Request: fold
Amino acid sequence: MRIVAGAWRGRMLEAPRGSATRPTADRVRQALFDMLAHARWAEPLDGCHVLDAFAGSGALGLEALSRGAAHASFFETDRGALAALRANIATLGAAARSSVLARDATTPPPPPPGHVQCRLVLLDPPYGRDLITRSLPALIRTGWAASDALIVAECARHDTVPTNTLLAERQHGVAKLSIWRATLDSSS
Reply:
């Protein structure tokens, strides 16, 4: 697993041991960030604050940082994944632009004072547990994510996402990427 593009292109990432996490494949990350770079509905990554919930190794958030995002906040609860995430941040020298929370994204704490709401939210939870529907309203309600943030969810091919207004959806093997803009009713 490696960073696909940007300042850290080609740098290797540590993957968590065991089967508790499922890192997003390089080709899927490439496809996602190509969409985000070229779609007319996407905002520029330069200077953006990003939230990588269910972060695992942090590959999605670190890819965003490599491509110019200003800051990434990572939520993760698995100890092995947290160790890999922290090692990847240290290896890339990204500590000043990263915040790691060993917390569940479905019950996030209030953000720290001075926190800038994230405009890009990356959700890659374990499949089949309805964690997107449970986490997104909590992340918006507590102020981690902007109420109109761009949401990117990776889920199982047959899982549903909590929106009727998709901007894009792509299948990648057993996974699918769904992208939409959050709305105020996402926070209820």
User: Anything to note?
Assistant: The helical segments are 26-38, 59-66, 79-92, 131-141. The two ends are 37 Å apart (CA to CA). The CA atoms of residues 24 and 59 lie 7 Å apart.
